[in-house]
Specification:
It is a single chain. The chain is elongated and about 60 Å long. The strands form 2 sheets. Strands 5-4-1-6-7 form a 5-stranded parallel beta sheet, with helices on both faces. The chain is built from 11 helices and 7 strands. The protein folds into 2 domains: 133 residues, Rossmann fold, CATH 3.40.50.1000; 62 residues. It has 201 residues and is α/β, with parallel strands linked by helices.
Length: 201
């Protein structure tokens, strides 16, 4: 069985806003507007449309931040916390011989840093990461890319993601999907058990 795993709010929880707010200059009166501007261009960054150094330079200017490029990178990276219940499942799936593929909207600052910071990502056999493909979920093109590059049969591939729009595209393309809720991991485990049982029939 092949699995496609999203990263954010599935394998790793994150708190983007609190970490990035540390870069604001003192006395900022419009932090929410600055953060909104930063996030609005994040999709463009994660689709690989903006080079990392260019994005950092733009973001520091947009935030009117006195931080250095290295300080920006550090703040951008220090947002993640492992979702241990899901990692327990990943370890078992890997031990049972399933094929595991990461499928994530992610940028060149977070990747490959997360694979170095969290060595258990080595349990995954491959990865489809948005900034290298030129597309982001839920665009169908990135799903088609994953299907083609990794020779996937959607009907035999279980896809886990936290965002409903991403799941909707996956379902339209025939994947067996689960919209993951970080606060209800047992529901995922019940679905997973049923899917694995059905695949043996």
């Amino acid at each position: 069985m092949t699995f496609l795993f999203d990263i954010g709010r599935v394998l790793l929880d994150f708190d983007f806003e609190s970490s990035m707010a540390r870069l604001f200059p003192s006395g900022v009166t419009d932090p929410a507007e600055r953060m909104k501007l930063l996030i609005e261009r994040k999709d463009e960054f994660e689709a690989g449309k903006i080079e990392t150094d260019d994005y950092i330079a733009w973001a520091l200017e947009a935030l009117d931040s006195p931080a250095t490029s290295d300080e920006f990178r550090h703040a951008w990276q220090q947002i993640f916390t492992p979702n241990e219940p899901m990692w327990q499942c990943v370890r078992q799936l890997a031990a049972d011989g399933h094929r595991l593929i990461l499928f994530s909207n992610i940028n060149g600052i977070h990747w490959p840093w997360i694979t170095e910071e969290f060595p258990e990502f080595s349990l995954f056999h491959d990865a489809v990461v948005s900034y290298k493909t030129g597309f982001i979920k839920p665009q169908p093109e990135i799903y088609q890319h994953a299907i083609g590059v990794h020779d996937l049969d959607p009907a035999e591939t279980l896809y886990i993601d936290d965002l409903p729009q991403n799941i909707a595209t996956g379902r339209e393309l025939g994947f067996r999907t689960w919209q993951y809720d970080l606060n209800d991991h047992p529901a995922f485990e019940s679905w997973l058990a049923a899917e694995l049982t059905a695949s043996k029939v």
